[in-house]
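## Example pair
The file below holds two records. Each record gives the amino-acid sequence first, followed by its structure token line.
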Amino acid sequence: MAVYNGAAHVTEQLDSIVAQLGPDDEVIVVDDASTDSSLDIIEDFKDDRIRLVRSAVNRGYVRTFEAALTASRGRYIFLSDQDDVWLPGRLDVMIDAMSTSSVVASNFSFFGQQPRSIESLRLRAVDSSRKRTNLLLLWVGVRPYYGCAMAFRRDVAPLILPFPQSLYETHDQWIALVGNLAGEMRHIEQDTLSRRLHDTNTTPKKARSPFLIVRSRLMLARAFFVAARRIRKYRSGGNPND
């Protein structure tokens, strides 16, 4: 979990997560130099399964998530925003899906505000193996891969981490890109969380300018070649990050 000034909602989110954890599970929370009471709230949980990592400087959500994923030690790695709510059974549903695929992404419901039309797009299980279509629609920006609804197995972590240095946004698109290129992506049609929409969500609420759209597509195109190179090295027995 990446946290930045999440005091208003992080308690509800953590409650929904720890309710599904076993005694040997963990929650890695990386605080991105919050200026509110987020740190105090997280520390008040007094749960040994919650590991709090404090960032001395604000690095942004991409590098904060990278730090949290890198610090994780479990076989199954789930991404979580600070302000959503995990639905009961999420853990079991997604772990079951990871028995056959290394990267999984689910659908989700909303609360708080009405979603934009593009946020209402849903994943279909039948599209899981259509990697060329998934990659194209991911690049265009209409395949709904959201980090808060994603998880991956430890064995694919060397392909995902570290994030490319050129990645300045959409870490979830990067993970989905790797999963699809490797032929390891699975879509879960079930809602596994409820996503809170509010005025300070990181996801933009208005259409982006043409310049920003082109810049983002170029970033993802560059990431495609990074992922392809890592997968090729990994399958040949080499270090994917050499």
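Second record, same layout:
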Amino acid sequence: MNNIFDSEFLRKIEQLKINSRVLMSTNGSGNRKSRSKGSSVEFSDYREYSSGDDFRRIDWNAYGRFDKLFIKLFMEEREARINIFIDTSASMNWGTPHKGIQAKRLAAAIAYIGLANFDKVSILAVNEQITSSRKSIHGKAGFWQVLNYLQDLPFTGGTTLNKAIREFDGGGAGISIIISDFFSFDGLKEALKYLQYKKQDIILCHMLSPEEIAPSVGGSVRLMDVETGETKDITVTHSLLKAYQKALEDFTGDIKKFCFKRGITYIRLSSDLSMENMVKMTIGEKQ
């Protein structure tokens, strides 16, 4: 996992910023501009230096007085709170390329961008509940915490996103990015309403494998639900594949329509896309 990104790729994504339509936290430094009054050159406050902070912001006069490193803060600059929910249910443990691994890579890339822009990043693993998390990571040095955490995440259990995401306690306005196949037993819409109530700007990354988007199987096959273990024997015909495609389009279309009405960003991703394109699609950059 630690070798997923080479230095050239990291340099590219470091220049990108996650777009947001909501007012961010009024605490911290960050590179994001808030809607509060003042200009980026209007001095506001100090905070103690943390590993990964821009050394150009260090106030050396304050260091001479207090023998500690302090960073200058400015009125218009605010940090964003970026919350990355990654689906670690058993249904993500499948596909070629493996959609769970691609989800981890995308989560790591988004986290890197946030950390490089002095935002505060939290990652939450969800299946039937929030199984674990790493919260309030900041500074580029924290990227290694992200990689180590994601590397060890297992894909197990069922998916109940409405229930799991409603365990999220918020912590202020921010950006919530959900990376999942959205095969959730209890749906998704109530979770999205809850996140908006918590003043989250939401981005849905709908991660599917090429086999799920366009199955190439035929004849008699046995299907198994990887989350429940249930099996079903079917004969795959042309008409059945057409029915599957319609069901998939209805499924994704319903999510997309709901998101459009609520002002939520919806992106459908195939796990065989390049990671650079996945990142650009997620943060709204032109490909």
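Notes on the second record: Residues 37-75 form one domain. The chain has two domains: 37-75, 81-283.
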